[in-house]
Amino acid sequence: RVLWLAAMSNRALYSMLQHVHGRFPLPARLPSACRSHNAPKDEFLVLGIESSFDDTGVAVVHSSGRALSNIVQSQNHKRTGGVVPFEAGPLHTQRLPRITEQALHTAGVKMENIAAVACTVGPGLAPCLKAGLEFASELCETHRKPLLPVHHMEAHALTPRMTHTVEFPFLVLLASGGHCLLLLAEDIGNYSLLGTTLDDAPGEAFDKAARFLNLEGGGAAVELHAQRGNSRAYPFHEPLVRQRSCDFSFSGLKTSLWKAVQAYSAANPNALEAQVVCDLAASFQYTACRHLQRRTLRALEFCRTRQVTIHSFVVSGGVACNKVLLEGLRHVAASASVPLVCPPPALCRDNGLMIAWAGAEAFRRGQGVCQTPLHDQYFHPVWPLGRSVQQDVLDAHISAAALRDIWK
Question: pLDDT tens for residues 360-406?
């Protein structure tokens, strides 16, 4: 913890720590500083604070799942071309008091009406997590409220339980700009990791694709231009097609797109033609979505062979806003006779409401309240979710031949 704090002002040390945490991650469990408590008997409100990346979010949720407020403010990175952790952290610190006041005002409540404060403590950028945790700890200490540390990815996984009836166990695909996970959610705090990305996240790949094609708007721009393109114009190779796992990879696909752009530019010195851009976008999106769908279908088949009855297939995270992907995953779920559940687009992106709800789920069960002094809390820039069963998936040797029907 001392090293992370020192790294706030030292870029080289920060990069080194991120690398070390990547090689030796923290245990996939809630901090030992959390303890059980008496579950609330009545209805209650939870304030949620999200600051893991570049979105500052604060929200108030009722224990029934009713959203009373959800304020999100994004940071503008046009000047730097991306998120700079050492600038993003102070921006969170600057904005959190005002956004919290706005969230309470919108909800029509005061801090004395709040039962507990939930806060993202990982994974994410260290300066951003530090800013949110320091603010939440100070807020709890001032108003004598319990603090509920929340895993960012678990919050994404649990969000559909706020908007839909989703019973455990369920399969969940979390796809965003920084993560890509396939999990079997068996209960709150009980997850089995079937697959994860071996390199880049899908959201990051889509954003890079937009940059290669000189499109403004990131992944959404790729989806928009793909509507007017031919998805078979450029036969990009689907990643890991020979590997019988549920893991993902997007770096090779990203490189293939870059090479296609370079090859066209070499033969045509002028700017990319509009139709070529659309065809490249459509081909990239088709291959990326097919990759996500194929791994998901293998995960559903793995659960079936293990005789695990899946009640729902949940898709969450920013990439879930892609309509082409969502429609393809709907067919995948239907092939396994499992209903697909996806939160509204506003809740697929990072927000304080999902953090508040994840905290409320634990608080209702009498779990997750911090035991150590508030000034001694810590964050987890790298924090795995669930126990890995990736080797079990490989050992199951689920052949790609069993996955062909859906592509006919």
Answer: 999 999 887 876 555 566 889 989 999 999 999 999 999 755 555 55
- Residue 100, token pair as written in the block: 């919290």
- The Cβ of residue 403 has, within 10 Å, a number of other Cβ atoms equal to 18
**Separation CA 205–CA 115 (nearest Å):** 40
**Phi, psi of 177, deg, nearest 5:** -75, -15
Helices and strands, counts by H and E, the chain: 14, 13
DSSP 306: T
Buried residues in 235-262 as b, exposed as e (16+ CB within 10 A): ebebbbeeeebbbbbbeebbebbeebbe
- Distance set, CA 234 to CA 204, 225, 255 (Å): 21, 15, 13
Q: How many CB atoms lie within 10 A of CB 112?
A: 8
The half-sphere exposure of 11 on its side-chain side, counting CA atoms within 13 A, is 4
At residue 221, what is the residue type?
A: A
φ, ψ of residue 395 in degrees (nearest 5): -65, -25
DSSP H/E element including 294: helix 274-305
Q: Which two tokens stand for residue 133?
A: 């945790």
121 sits in which H/E element: strand 116-122
User: 116 φ, ψ to 5°?
Assistant: -160, 160
Which residues, at least 6 apart from 10, have a Cβ–Cβ distance to it below 8 Å? none
Q: What is the pLDDT of residues 143-183, one digit of tens each?
A: 999 999 999 999 999 999 999 999 999 999 999 988 999 99
The model's pTM: 0.86
The DSSP call for residue 310 is: -
Take residue 85 and report the two structure tokens written for it: 């952790």
User: What are the two backbone dihedrals, phi and then psi, of residue 373, each rounded to the nearest 5 degrees?
Assistant: -55, 145
What's the rounded Cα separation, in Å, for the pair 280 and 286?
10
